[in-house]
Amino acid sequence: MTHTIRTDLPASTVDPFSDDVLEDPSGFHAALRDAGPVVYLSAHGVYAMARHEQVHAALRDWQGFQSGAGVGLSNFRHEKPWRPPSLLLEADPPGHDAPRRVLSGLLDLRALRRLREGWRDVAEQLVDTVLAAGTEFDAVPALAEAFPLRVFPDAVGIPAAGRENLLPYGSHLFNVFGPANERVAEGAERAPALQAWVTAQCQRDQLAEGGFGAQIWAAADRGEITPEQAPLVVRSLLSAGVDTTVQGIAAALHAFATHPRQWQRLREQPGLARIAFDEAVRWASPVQTFFRTATADVRIGDVVIPDGEKILMFLGAANRDPRRWSDPDVFDLSRDPSGHVGFGFGLHQCVGQHVARLEAECLLTALAARVRTIEIAGPTRRRLNNTMRAWGALPMRVTTA
Ligand code: HEM
Q1: Contact partners, residue 35, CB within 8 Å, separation at least 6
Q2: Which residues pair with 303 in a beta bridge?
């Protein structure tokens, strides 16, 4: 597709998906926010919003900014999606509504209560095991990956074999929302096998009784969704529910290791664990960006975004916008982080956010009861991804309580 070069609005030639930006996006985000409410990104021929006010408003305006043409750079009006699109993330009303209702019911706070005690026990055992092995460890595999990978696939009800495919699948999926760069090329070879494995886990006969997966099929039996939709709704959990939470927890651990006074506050008031996790999601924005597509010529201030054009929403930049937050770069448990867009906002706001919060709360509470201090013990490493702000390694040193 060819794009008209816009000269009548602020523009940036920087590629948001380049290694340099992904390694540390803060300078680029500030420049985008300062350039204006809407900026043209000539590297990909798309529009961008980085200020909280516009990102928040556009996320609410699902009629003006649709998801059904894809929430990645690829425009489903012109290009075939690499896999059957998500019935939630990549859908608009009315099709979006029935699958969303099913998942909202399964994943609301009340429905999750039955999982709390078991997850708390698993978190306590995991932290005890890690600490028994030593007080220096890489927090990414030891805690951030180990905990969600243990509790979440069990809650969905998939078999134990093959779970090591979940993270590489998520990683590729989140890369594919960006341009077809080297990160996508690296994952392309394994992608068909990973996709086939995920698809197989979504079938009724694979899913344990009582789990989220079986409950989705039960909703199909009740006629709330069709039997054809059921496996794709299960797939949404396996696609959107693993990598995101792993990186949300990694972000929280990194935040505490670099803000020791906040760790002391959490130890004094473990009830702050939930708010601490939301503040970490605001501060780090594990999901950095998603696209929308204009459904008509949409005016934002002086700028008209033409029908069919892609707009990149910088959730991470909005969550650190000084126009909305005081001292946005500081991780602070006394802040009210509500209104952050790290879980999105409006119609597509993360349907699994209570799951992520419960996982984080269980793990942070177990750690706070056992660990007096927590600090970075060596060089940290990012795992660059076109959509996720991810950690590859977080060496940590702790002292026990
Ligand atoms: C810290 C962890 C998580 C983060 C940061 C996160 C982030 C997000 C964001 C930003 C969106 C909005 C996408 C958009 O507006 O286009 C979203 C949607 C979604 N999330 Fe999450 N998520 C997390 C955990 C989870 C979990 C644990 C699940 C599953 C249990 C999940 C399932 C979904 C689904 C299915 C959608 C699509 C909802 C819709 O379109 O109606 N997410 N998430």
Answers
A1: 10, 12
A2: 300
pTM greater than 0.85 (yes/no) = yes
Furthest-apart CA atoms within the chain: distance in Å: 61
Q: Which two tokens stand for residue 193?
A: 């096998």
Pocket-testing residue among 290, 350, 355, 357, ligand 1, by greatest number of atoms within 8 A of Cβ:
350
Angstrom CA distances, 295 to 66, 114, 121, 307, stand at: 6, 42, 48, 5
Report how far ligand 1's centroid is from the alpha carbon of 47 (Å). Answer: 23
Q: Report the half-sphere exposure of 154 (CA within 13 A, side-chain side).
A: 11
Q: Is the pLDDT of residue 78 over 70?
A: yes
Rounded Cα distance between 202 and 217, Å, is 10
Q: What CA–CA distances, in Å, run from 101 to 108, 225, 400?
A: 11, 9, 44
Specify the DSSP class assigned to residue 389: E
Write down the CATH superfamily of domain 11-400. Cytochrome P450 (1.10.630.10)
- Return the residue whose CA atom lies nearest to atom 41 of ligand 1: 348
Q: What is the pLDDT of residues 332-361, one digit of tens each?
A: 999 999 999 999 999 999 999 999 999 999
Place of tokens 């003006």: 64
Residues whose beta carbon lies within 6 Å of some atom of ligand 1? 59, 67, 71, 88-89, 100, 103, 107, 236-237, 240-241, 244-245, 248, 281, 286-287, 290, 315, 342-344, 348, 350-352, 355-356
> Measuring from atom 23 of ligand 1, which residue has the nearest CA?
244
